[in-house]
Design goal:
eight-stranded mixed beta sheet, 28% helix, five-stranded mixed beta sheet, elongated, alpha/beta
Length: 328
């Protein structure tokens, strides 16, 4: 196993923890021997042990001169478990290569601690790839709130519903399957009361139970699906984003997936809460109907909101774009 293959595997493994590790980051780890032989691997899957410890426990034997490839700098603090740095030192691992430096002041200092114990340390390998998969937690550490991603299904002319309000289905079955996967990678799903009343959604997924958050002033019928026991639900009365942030921060969420219509989505855009757009665009045109975004109060081209395209992927006949808000 080459060093590049080992880190690529660790990055892949880290993604298996998406939606399962809150409030912790997603991390993958791979251990290879001194001759490049595969020893073991692990990822943080929401249980107590971090990825490094899982990989160590999965190894029947760790020979001298072994290297651990890990997507985040090993933690250096005691929380629910002891420091991962100490587990690495105790296991006799000689080298550690990590992708992203830990920005969390509580857990920083892992590399320094390892070096002081005689472990050689290298950083920055596949940093952008590992950082992208861990962008939700990294956003939370930087901004003090979860990362908000707005998922939208639109036509070529930017419509989310026809003139009569019908919207099922603008996008393909393959796109809807991908949306289900995205839900499973999120800690919470946010909609407005308008969407809740119009669509009566379940907002559930087979791969997890993200918290359903409904925000707005209208009353949701007692027999609505959102009142069932399939997933926890929080109803936030009103349009005060401070109440929303207070709730999601107390829960320690890393990622909130917004599946709302234009009213809540536009308000979140104006409040600076949209970090990411996930757009599924179907190759169809309505001409009239409801646009995905409302009036942002923009009157000049210089006032526009710019986004950077991170990736484009085809699902069925639809094109998916992931975009991030460009810093002004």
């Amino acid at each position: 196993m080459t060093p590049a293959e080992a880190m690529a595997r660790a990055v892949f493994l880290s993604g298996q923890g998406l939606g399962r590790t809150c409030p912790n980051p997603v991390v993958g780890a791979v251990i290879i021997g001194p001759k490049g032989e595969f020893i073991s691997e692990g990822f943080h899957g929401g249980v107590v042990d971090h990825a490094e410890v899982v990989a160590i426990k999965n190894a029947s034997k760790i020979p001298g001169g072994s290297t651990m490839y890990v997507t985040l700098e090993p933690c250096n603090h005691t929380g629910k478990t002891g420091p991962c740095t100490q587990a690495i030192i105790t296991a006799g691992i000689s080298h550690v290569v990590y992708a992203v430096s830990d920005p969390n002041p509580i857990a920083q200092g892992g590399a320094e601690n390892l070096r002081s114990a005689g472990v050689s340390v290298q950083s920055g390998t596949m940093e952008s790839e590992a950082g992208f998969l861990n962008r939700d937690w990294l956003t939370k550490i930087t901004l003090g709130r979860p990362r908000f991603a707005w998922k939208i299904g639109i036509t070529l002319d930017g419509k989310i519903a026809a003139k009569d309000g019908s919207s099922q289905w603008i996008t393909s079955e393959e796109s809807r399957e991908e949306v289900a996967r995205l839900r499973g990678q999120s800690d919470a799903i946010l909609i407005g009361t308008g969407t809740a009343i119009a669509d009566n959604p379940h907002l559930t997924t087979q791969s997890g139970k993200p918290t359903r958050i409904v925000m707005g002033n209208r009353t949701i019928a007692a027999d609505a699906h959102l009142h069932d026991a399939s997933a926890p639900t929080e109803f936030i009365v009103g349009q005060d984003f401070d109440l929303l942030l207070d709730f999601v921060n107390k829960k320690g969420f890393n990622r909130v997936l917004i599946e709302s219509g234009p009213t809540l989505g536009t308000a979140a855009l104006q409040a600076g809460l949209i970090d990411e757009l996930i757009i599924f665009q179907a190759p169809t045109i309505l001409g009239t109907g409801q646009s995905f975004v409302g009036d942002l109060g923009i009157t000049k081209i210089s006032e526009r909101m710019d986004f950077d395209i991170v990736s484009t992927t085809q699902f069925g006949v639809d094109n998916q774009m992931i975009l991030t808000r460009r810093a002004s």
